[in-house]
Amino acid sequence: MSFKKFCIALMCVSLIPGAFSCKKQAGETIKIGAIFSVTGPASFLGAPEAKTAEMMVEEINDKGGIDGKMLKLIVKDSAGDPAKAISFAKQLIEEDKVFAIIGPSTSGETMKIKAICEEGKTILVSCAAAEVIVNPVAKYVFKSPQKDSDAVQSIYNVMKKKGIKSIGIVSSNDGYGTAGKDQLEKLAKKNGIQILISEVYDKKATDLTGVLTKLKAKNVQAVINWSIVPAQSIIAKNMKQLNMDVPLFQSHGFGNIKYVKEAGEAAEGIIFPCGRLLIAEDLPENHPQKAVLMKYKKNYESEYGEDASTFGGHAYDSLMILVEGIKRGGADKEKARGAIENMKGFAGTGGIFNFSPADHNGLDINAFEMLTVKGGKFVKYEDK
Amino acid sequence: MNMKKYTPVFCLIGAAVIFQIITSVLNREFYLTQLTMSAYYCLVILGLTVLMGYAGQISLGHAAFFAMGGYTTAVLTTWNLAAAQEGTLARLVVQLGLSTASTNAYGVEIRHISPWVSLLVALAITVAVAFLIGIPILKLKGHYLAMATLGFGIIVYRIVLGSRIFGEADGISDLPPFRLFGPLYVSGDPALRVQNFYIAAFLVVLAVVLLQNLIDSRMGRALRSIHGSEEAANAMGVNTARYKLHVFVLSAVFACIAGVFLTHFNGGVGPSEADVMKSVTYVAIVAVGGMANLWGALAMGMALNYLSLRGYFGSYDEFVFGGILIVIMLFFPDGLLKKENMRSLTEAAIRMKNKIWKRKNELS
């Protein structure tokens, strides 16, 4: 080992931490912490969320902040690691003394820091969907994404109108698929729907004909698939190959046009519940969400050159609910918290939020619109 | 007893105490949170240092043992006994006095299995698993051993991710605090931060003393002989298979204890603790610490984990640890913080100094 080699290597190692250390700013500001899994297995959630939050904070500050106070966003990348989310939450609350935290991206991380935020008396507006985040209600914890149970109910409502009684379910083996499967099974009986068969597949599956053959043998009247993986396209194609001529329902995870492109012809006629971001252009002018959705979509797409997703929308909602709370209650944690809790009729990307002390999600089934695929595009589903 | 041997240990204790006093005086006690977490991760790293550096056996599956400890205690202590009182098993647990009560974040009192019991169960499971997989796996060498331990790590990760009892992708939250005895609790409560820092520091010091003695013992010499040449050690009458297995189990136990304590400190555990990238991180820290250098591993473990947990690496976290591993393997396959490297560094510094002196004299 020569000395020169040693020096080069030592320099490489010692430069790494310095290169990524954060910069510090001064001034009269409201600090908002953000914990997103920008990298790691949940990056498909965290990346658009972080981009959205940064874009919105910049926009608010360009317009002079909130009542003259600038916002300062501190984004922490948890990479989906709960230990890091815990560490960051403590750091943001005690050290940076943030006004509030938005995120984390996943339900697991949110549940780990729920008690920490509650004890630290810091507002948390989560971007994760699980219902346990707001049930039982914690005083300082809110969430912006819609409920899985409302998505399921929307699907069952359509089925009832179509006269579908017996169905088959397929779901992926990750957290998203399991949560959806639970709700589907829980609400089926109440809606008079019989689940003939429920199959789980690996989220990396590339062919689902085996699972579908089982469903076909049961003569199901419709198929529901619950996943956020490319299997959403595969299942549509496989159903065509097997000549299964029953309607295919999917979860709100299908709300990404790339899945339609992958499935091609086979995607036609898929019915799924989703927020209104995907059909923003088609909404009537007087719809309360129209202006919000169009603006977010346009700004995000021109800023980052990629399609806006409903996930980024969750970060938009979390941040804007908080900002609205500060506008109404002032830059005081307790007052802002009270303002959020009593906020009614706030139009976000996910729906119209109506919070109450018992409901820290604020969204109901009206947040969902049933969509279908027509001519390779998402359109509103109309009953025939 | 040879007190000189323990001088570095006393320095370590002194450093911990001084650091705590400084942070308390400056009202910066929040630094202790990440230091406590880093200290627990250091327990894993210390165990791994003996396995890798002294016995020369690589393991890319140590995050799995950590997760075993964390998940066992998480599952057992979040099992609400009050709700399951009708069950015979639950009633038996209560009657045997294995349960304890604590209040959760929402002010509700819950009855659950004592963390001392779950610690013992976790240790029993870890020792059993480490023995069972250690016997066949440690017959392998080099790349094959690395791949086998990697496979084991992936299996545990998939089990944790796929089982409902382990909370799947969400993990397990809302763990009760671990009451050690009297007023000593392992918990993330900001009011108990100082005592938690000392609990973690105590475990690290204990681990260092134990491992230092192990290294200097007959077993330590045997391990080093295995590292040098397994065939030669065998020929000299060292029972290599047994020594390798014992040190493998020992390092697994260290990881398991770290898992139990950190999970109670954090109040929750998630599947990323069992992730293969975590194992790679541990190996990278052992490598940068000097392979067969407990103090180097401890110093680097504290520093790198601390920086990582405070988010200094941002989105480049995995990149940093991966990069470190590549640099070390390319330039210093025997580890970075080693006596020889230090010596060449000081020699070079002296040479440089002499050169500057010489030039100065020439100029004047």
What do these coordinates show?
The complex is a heterodimer of chains A (384) and B (364). In chain A, strands 2-1-3-4-5 form a 5-stranded parallel beta sheet, sandwiched between helices. In chain A, strands 7-6-8-9 form a 4-stranded parallel beta sheet. In chain A, strands 10-13-14 form a 3-stranded antiparallel beta sheet. Chain A is of the alpha/beta class. Chain A is globular and about 65 Å long. Chain A has helices spanning 3-20, 43-62, 82-95, 107-119, 148-162, 175-188, 209-217, 231-241, 257-263, 290-304, 310-329, 333-341; strands spanning 29-36, 70-77, 100-102, 123-126, 141-143, 166-172, 194-201, 222-226, 248-250, 271-274, 346-347, 352-353, 369-374, 377-380. Mean pLDDT of chain A is 89; it is low at 17-26. Chain B is mostly helical. Chain B has a single domain, classed as ABC transporter involved in vitamin B12 uptake, BtuC. Helices cover 68% and strands 6% of the residues of chain B. Chain B is built from 14 helices and 6 strands. Chain B has helices at 7-25, 31-54, 62-77, 88-95, 115-137, 142-162, 193-215, 218-228, 230-235, 240-266, 276-288, 294-309, 317-331, 339-363; strands at residues 99-103, 109-113, 172-173, 178-181, 184-186, 268-269. Chain B starts with 6 loop residues before the first helix and ends with a helix. Classes of the chains: A alpha/beta (384), B mainly alpha (364). Chains A and B meet through helix 1, helix 3, helix 4 and helix 6 of A and helix 2, strand 6, helix 12, helix 13 and helix 14 of B.
